[in-house]
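User: Can you predict the 3D structure for this chain?
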Amino acid sequence: MGMDDLNEFVPQLRPHNIRRGHHLYFMISRRPFLELSSDDISLYDGIDGQLTVADLERVYPGARDRLLKWHDAFVLELIAPLPQPKSPHLVVIEPHMDDAAISVGGRLLHRRGRQRITVISVVKWTNFTSYLSLNRAFLNVTDITKLRLQESALAARLLGAETCCLDWPDAPLRFWPAERWSERTVDRYTAEPANFVDLLPNPKDVTGLAEQLARLLVPLAPDELWIPMGLGDHVDHRTTRSACLMMLAEARGRFSNLPVIMYEDLPYAVESKHSAQIQAALASAGTRFIPGREDITDVFRQKMRLVSIYASQFKLSYMEPLLRKLAERETGVPGMFAEAYHQLVGERKLPLESQLSPEASGLATLKREVRGLPRERTILGRLTVLALPSGHLGRWETDSKTLAEAFPNAQRQFYVSEKVVWQAHSHCQEQPGVRIVRGGRLGCVGAILRQFLDFRTPTVVLSAGAYNSKFKRKLIKTLLPFRQVLFAKKLCEFCGVLNEQIRNFDG
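Assistant: Here is the predicted structure, written as structure tokens:
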């Protein structure tokens, strides 16, 4: 960036950098990364995101040199003056406030100043920062959410875009409410973050989000819409994807002529099998994909700068190699970069959630096993759920209600390993029919043996190896003869498949 073309640029400070006295710190770090002189402090405090470089130079002689130095040190961004076209209008829907930059940042950079861009973020409230992955308990939802919004606004200015954020809490906060987070919760998250985010989308969440997005899109009147494919196991990405498809299907009249592009969620696109599976599921519903790739080699460095704005979430040194590898994969040429996308053509329908899941093959097996339960649900006298130490209670309050509604006349009994009982934050051990199983695997074997003579009771076994451990399945079925034994990784997956089968049975 040269000195001659800098005058009309507007400096804006990065919100995750904090000045304390003569030093700059990254968020809550106690180690300063830059020392400021008294003159530096005056200039630093004079940067308001409105004054141009020329304005600041008139007040603080020599400002240009220091601003360039601070730009190189990632203290601030220099916002280029951009045209503000009213059309065509591109709307991008992202699950979190960094997903558009990470997944389609290069394509958006190509369009800045050439068309109106609006980025809609679904998730607002969060307690996630990179500190959480480092097992540090920085958990203030209000402060972290404010910081995320400021980062998002800064990224939008670099893109010449408008932003809109819905009022949804992040998946970890939906699974475990903010008021219940503690250092113990941080330990659990650090050890197994998938427990908080790897869940089958809740149908009520999908429906509610689809309705919100439809209300929002109508006045925006987009000329083109980009939506996430929902790759990977993060429930927020999968919920956003499904809500977008539901919105397009149910508001067919309003959006029938709207071009829709499905972008691949990065860096989750590392596993290409999930993309192929989602395409197959949509194809079975009548949706065709026209694949495309856009060369972003010319703006790849700018994209990395854009992605680095979200420094509260990750270090660029971690994210850049992943994005570089994926972008090079699309071109097949080292040093050449592209972003993949898919245009949706034909019918726009939402397939069954089990068909869109990364666990689709395992859920297909579970679906076959569950097939006979809907016709028995009103006459079934007993149902047992056994949560092994590697299992997952899903969304306990929602899923236990689902079982009660599905089997209204059945006595429901739960044998829950002490290792996973924490996941039911509503004190499930105090509820009727819930027994805590102590002693790890041996304790679970004992619980199984105590039910040996409890014939004809359908038993749901929750285990991490539910879909691929043939030995474990065979062993448990041997220990529980004369009954139907069903296997799922998570209670929410069993309930999701069960609800799909009930809807199919009821017609």
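The mean pLDDT is 91. The chain has 22 helices and 17 strands.
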